[in-house]
Design brief:
The chain has 465 residues and is of the alpha/beta class. The protein has helices at residues 34-42, 63-70, 153-168, 199-205, 214-222, 232-241, 246-253, 259-269, 279-284, 299-306, 323-331, 345-351, 364-373, 384-389, 424-435, 447-451, and strands at 2-8, 13-20, 23-27, 46-51, 74-76, 87-88, 94-97, 100-106, 115-120, 126-132, 176-179, 197-198, 256-257, 272-275, 291-292, 314-317, 338-342, 360-362, 378-380, 396-397, 416-419, 441-444.
Length: 465
């Protein structure tokens, strides 16, 4: 028997390959399905089932494409109403995989169709539980994403309370918990960096599994929820309706364009120029009005958060050789309208003598000198929770996720300084501001981590050392 967790760090997402004998099941596959087919082929196995624990909001699943290519049925729990052919299982329904059994447990709460998949060995002993977004390591799924007019987040949290206590807590302590997400995902608020654990240990340390009333549980899981990223409803829709194979997206977007052709497409198609280079490379020279979201960070979630239209035409500036990687990672959150990339990267644009822009990025020590000798405006684009722990004295908190809603609070007639924790988010913010005409933006390289090593004071007046 094989259980393999296929973890994708940029989405903090875990898909699962389970094989017993020469039969395999896939749980919550990513959009690029060839990985699963290759693995089954190498192992001499046939993919028999494709389980979806729920309609995912944070990524586009490959279930429809994988089913079309393998003939394996797509299986959901009760209440699911997809637009494509699927098996809608009943609570407790079992599916044989070799001499093992996969039992679907309906666990509504995160969404109403949410289900967990329990693996039992040939003797009927419970071995592992694939919990989707019902139970995470250290947390549970947020109950606000499936709200409707007649279904509040408190209603969903109440369903989740009952699901956990009736379906998961009675299972043996030695059962291994395999969730769909880990730390960094917006599907929970307190997830561990660990990607699996025993149920027994989770009963000890997970706040949501402690003895408590339903009312206490509802208060605990709904407290401190931040607004979900704007692209979540669109990804749910795509996962319900189905979407074209990723190969077509790659073929359409993987088009090299000369600087002249690139500029022409930008002008005629209303395309947004998305520059995915490292922040400090971007700051030195970039195509005017382009946005920087570096590929070497939480790329796809930030694209989904900051580019509101999932159908926005995109042109890419990447480090040479990373074009297909960028297009693939965009497709994972449904951004399929890539029209091409700048052939040769930014070097070709510079060699062609075309117009560029730049952002002043200063070292933390330089910022400290200016902070001590001038009256400076400081904008902190970290999360409120980060800001509350410690922040530059007098800094105003404008989280990157809500930057567009607070653009009028930034000055256009005087310099201001933007920072985050390490420099990734602040360059995103600076690029957006620059594209909107805020020419006096200054970015602090290294963010608060670097600032904290200088003499700059906290809001309380204490020195950070």
């Amino acid at each position: 028997m094989i259980i393999e967790q296929l973890y994708t760090g940029c989405l903090a997402q875990g898909a699962y390959y389970i094989q017993v004998g020469n039969e395999a099941a896939i749980i919550d596959p990513l959009r690029e399905v060839q990985t699963y087919m290759n693995k089954a082929s190498r192992n001499g196995a046939t993919i028999k089932y494709i389980f979806e624990t729920h309609f995912h909001a944070d990524f586009v699943s490959g279930h429809v494409d994988l089913s079309a290519k393998t003939g394996a049925p797509i299986i959901y729990g009760p209440n699911a109403k997809p637009a494509f052919e699927a098996t809608i299982a009943t609570d407790g329904q079992e599916f044989k995989l070799g001499d093992h059994t996969l039992r679907l447990l309906h666990t509504p709460g995160h969404t109403m169709e949410s289900s967990c998949i329990l693996l039992l060995d040939e003797t009927g002993k419970e071995k592992a539980i694939f919990t989707g977004d019902t139970l995470f390591i250290g947390d549970v799924g947020r109950p606000d994403l499936a709200q409707k007019a007649d279904l509040t987040q408190d209603d969903l949290a109440g369903f989740l309370y009952e699901s956990l206590r009736s379906k998961l807590l009675p299972l043996p302590n030695e059962v291994i918990v395999y969730p769909a997400h880990g730390a960094g995902s917006a599907c929970g608020k307190n997830m561990s960096k660990e990607t699996f654990d025993t149920l027994g240990h989770q009963k000890e340390v997970n706040y949501a599994l402690q003895p408590q009333t339903k009312e206490q549980f509802i208060e605990a899981v709904t407290d401190g929820l931040t607004p979900p990223p704007a692209y979540f409803p669109e990804n749910v829709r795509l996962n319900k309706e189905g979407i074209e194979p990723v190969e077509k997206v790659l073929k359409r977007g993987n088009q090299p364009l000369s600087p002249e052709a690139f500029e022409a497409v930008a002008n005629t198609e209303g395309a947004l120029v998305l520059d995915t280079r490292k922040p400090q490379e971007f700051s030195k020279a970039f195509i005017p009005r382009s946005i920087n979201i570096g590929i070497d960070g939480d790329f796809a979630p930030w694209v989904g958060t900051l580019i509101p239209d999932i159908n926005q035409p995109l042109l890419l500036v990447t480090a040479p050789g990373r074009e297909e990687e960028v297009i693939t990672r965009l497709s994972r959150v449904g951004y399929d309208q890539v029209l091409g990339f700048l052939q040769g990267g930014m070097d070709s644009w510079l060699a062609d003598g075309r117009e560029t822009d730049a952002i002043e990025s200063i070292h933390a020590e330089t910022f400290a000198e200016r902070f001590a000798n001038e009256e400076v405006i400081v904008k902190d684009v970290r999360k409120p929770s980060e800001y509350e722990v410690a922040h530059v004295a007098g800094a105003e908190n404008t989280p990157l996720a809500s930057l567009s809603d607070h653009m009028a609070e930034f000055p256009k007639d005087q310099p201001f300084y933007v920072h985050c924790a390490g420099g990734y988010r602040s360059m995103i913010a600076a690029s957006i501001l620059k594209a909107r005409g805020y020419d006096q933006v200054r970015e602090v390289a290294g963010g608060f981590g670097a600032i904290a090593k200088t003499s700059v004071a906290t809001e309380s007046g204490e020195m950070i050392s």
